[in-house]
Protein 1
Amino acid sequence: FADDGYRLWLKYDRLADATVRSGYARSTQFIAVSGSSPVLTAATSELQLGLQGLLGPTVPTLARAGTRQGGIVLTVGVSGADANGLNEEGYRIVKRQGNIVVMGKTDVGVLYGTFALLRQVQTGQPLDNINLVSSPKVKLRMLNHWDNPNGTIERGYAGGSLWKWSELPETIDPRYKDYARANASLGINGTVVNNVNASPRLLTGEYLQKVAALADVMRPYGIKVYLSVYFAAPKTLGGLKTSDPLDPQVRKWWADKTAEIHRYIPDFGGFLVKANSEGEPGPQDYGRTHVDGANMLAAAMKPFSGVVIWRAFVYKADPTGDRFKAAYEEFTPFDGQFDPKVIVQVKNGPIDFQPREPFSPLFGAMPKTPLGIEFQLTQEYLGFATHLVYEAPLFKECLESDTYAAGKGSTVARVVDGSLHGYRNAGPTQTLMAGVANTGSDRNWTGHPLAQANWYAFGRIAWDHTLTSAAIADEWIKMTLTRQPQAVSHVRAMLLRSRDIYVDYNAPLGLSRPWTGVHFAPEPWQNKSPRPDWTAVYYHRADSIGLGFDRTATGSNALAQYRPDVRRQWENVDNCPLPYLLWFHHVPWTKQLATGRTLWDELCTRFYTGADSVRWLQQEWALAKPAIDPALYTDVVGRLATQHREAIWWRDAWVLYLQEFAKKPIPKPFKQPE
Ligand code: GCU
């Protein structure tokens, strides 16, 4: 069969080199596992599946190793020195008494350890003196699915929903288990199964049974199920006159509903809430606040272990305001007032998953509130499922940004993993990274075969944000595409440069472009919408003088939301780093930039070289061809061709539009679009 991409990075194809195979086989002759919890059983069968696929022989299981050597021992409940550096989900893998011992405090730790062990074999690492210790830095590592009950996915580009609601709960698509395996292999331990623009239907008994069936599949893989909730459900579902969070009947309705959910799903993860945002109902509809709303749900959740994840993605239709500032203005006054069960989930940037954004000023500004981070894996603004954009550098760029909240080194990652503020008042499970899933019913899960790397990278970074983009790319390529060194380096180069190439032809120098509609058509001229902040001109502010949004003290002063050290990096138009220039400044067309070119010439240079670099992506891919599955190779060739055509389309639309304001010729050697 051609490789259809279904098996993701868990392909477990036979290693080509017989000597290498027999080397690994000698130290993996059996699996000794005492205990039979569903999680340990899942770990054991994954090891058997993986080792047999990679190496050939079937690997038997034993209750204990006894005096036998040359096998794998799975051990739950480590203590003493072995437990050093391990949290509840961590693992340690060591060579001991001739065996490879995979240990954890819990069976989930062992499950993660088995995937780590398989990864060693898949990526060609030696097992002889194996000594690995790893614990996740963030406690809730989850995917957010924007899936609707009718099977569509908001901003989904890889087919329909994975969840076959009409067949559930009786029919369990085997794919659910493969989804769980893929997530568990990365350490993802939560999934919000429905869209943040939530349908109240998910809270009906009919749907809760279906969700419970999914939870049953996820449980052996350490994954909890969460629901996005519709804030006005007490009215629409419960028949109450109001959904006011301070109304006793409303509070009782949510308490009863939460208890009912737990009868279906005893280990239910919790609620995700989009409230008073983009037309969704919320506490403000009743004159109440985000705190009133979130704490009401937290009270309903009190008897249970679940959490309430309250999104900070809010902004108002204010023509004189700056959307950039909205979330900070609305949320910072509430710092310290949220119930300990509440986590506030903040998008990486202040606007909306743009190709490049500065980090959200909320990070570091709410020291008494656990802030989770939300990235978008689905490529709403990054070329859907046709453009190649490897997102690890985007995640890392944000996580490594310094908020200076407690002096130098106060990175966004340290806010999110809790090490900066300690979150002392918070409950035990309050650190969070979420990724808006890019999965769908396409056979290869993500539409673009190489977009699987974004799911992979998100999971790995949520586990350990210190991993580098290059190291993650290497792992993914070797596990998924090829281990042939030349090909690995061509594909790695493509992945690592892809995001900057995209930014250059799509939104260079800090241009942003969120506007209403399909979110993937160049319409910089768009100026009509029911809301001013849903037009293009609101964001880029092109005029006869220049381009960009003045967010300094002479403009919206959004920069004042950052600490002085951050502000200083960006507030001066003469030394603001070019990737952020137009985020913060309205820059004259004729202004000389650090590159020696004027703004206009620099913009043209970026648009043209960006679009042209797609050819370089094509060349690199062609060089990797001999080592890549032919069907997969051809699929990507097609997508790169589309990407090239569309990159030119973006370039030309922007350049021709901006030229009307700049009134300058296109610099040599670039050609005027036809
Ligand atoms: C973006 C996206 C919407 C989504 C929203 C959100 O605006 O276009 O489809 O609902 O983000 O994150 O809530």
Note: The chain has three domains: 18-134, 140-470, 508-662.
Protein 2
Amino acid sequence: MKITVVGTGYVGLVVGACLAETGNDVICADVDQGKVDGLKKNVLPIYEPGLEEYVERNQAAGRLVFTTDVPSAIRDAEVIFIAVGTPPDEDGSADLKHVLAVADSIGKHAAREVVVVTKSTVPVGTAEKVAAAIRPHATVPFHMSSNPEFLKEGAALDDFMKPDRVVVGVETEFARERMAELYAPFVRTGKPIIFMDIPSAEMTKYAANAMLATRISFMNEIANLCEKVGANVDLVRKGIGSDSRIGPAFLFPGPGYGGSCFPKDVKALVRTSEERGAPMGVLKAVEDANEKQKHRLFQKITEVFGGQLKGRRIALWGLAFKANTDDMRESPALVLIEELLTAGATVVAHDPAAMHETRRRIGDAIGYAKTSYEAAQGADAMVVVTDWNEYRFPDFARLKSVLKQPVVVDGRNLYDPTKMESLGFTYRSIGRGRA
Ligand code: UDX
């Protein structure tokens, strides 16, 4: 099929590369000349394991083409994915100006019957607005579809190639058939394509992310309570996660959720719920709990040092909002760094992927170390912020020998509290009794 993806951000690139991988002719269009020039040379604007190989392979095979010429990319397409950014407005609602600009181009330039798919996470009602923007100029029939994306950063290719399910909102049989054909290679294992009406598809994306964010905030509050009552949240997590109604995933307490989706989508859904007169009090509480959680690591460090952080050197292991990404958007590390610096501490960080992005944001306000041990060298405490695999099994003897004081504050519960105490560390983690 001839596919056009407009927007070469995170979602657009993954969709384009994966649809090319299954033999479609894909044009990825973006107005950003620099980005497109880079992509033509297989230089990706984001870090995602495996994506570079996909782009390179499919570009070399001629199935994947990058261009800034949006009108010509639209002209001959059978399916057009709109995957441009929807940054939050000041009030938290998604800004649709880029989406509607693409719609306007589709109306003006589409030259054959086409399915127009909203792929960016957009509020309920957006497909209708897109259709309204296309209609006045349209010279060919078009069919709307909403096809939300459930990709996780760091596992995006797998998520796309082997999805749990594909959700597709459609209004016409034409759109349904096209989308079924397009996704057939990805659901051969029997996973479902769930067809539904468009508002339900749009709502599904928000409901999924809001539910997951709710689980995390819930577990973070349970963890904080565990500390007060002397319980161990890891055991509580296993205890409840083995109930098939609850399930084991997304029950890990930590320094608060971050990233480009959860914070933005929860905010947007709170906003929509208020606007539509069905306010979601649950989600407001989820947001509040997450804001509080982002301060927990600082509180723990402060407690260890009796409130005296001036002149202390603190090592951070991890900066990205989660492992396997260089994404710093809404990362709890940024909140922690600001608090530490304000308290007069110096910060030296290590991250396998996100140091470049952190420096772009906050410059040399902190030090950047080549290795995790170099970051810990001479530090009064080491703080685990991100759950990178390489931090899971450190050489504790080496760590202890390079630290000035054997203090470890573990925001991801990577280590065993009993073992850490027996090795002579002062160890704090999330929701495991006093530790
Ligand atoms: C999320 C959704 O999972 C994905 O379906 C959607 O398309 C986009 O948003 P992503 O933001 O890439 O994906 O990351 P995810 O792995 O879901 O983690 C989100 C945040 O929650 C991270 O900050 C992570 O550290 C945190 N988290 C996750 C926890 O604190 N505990 C958990 O148990 C799981």
Note: The chain has three domains: 2-196, 205-292, 294-428.
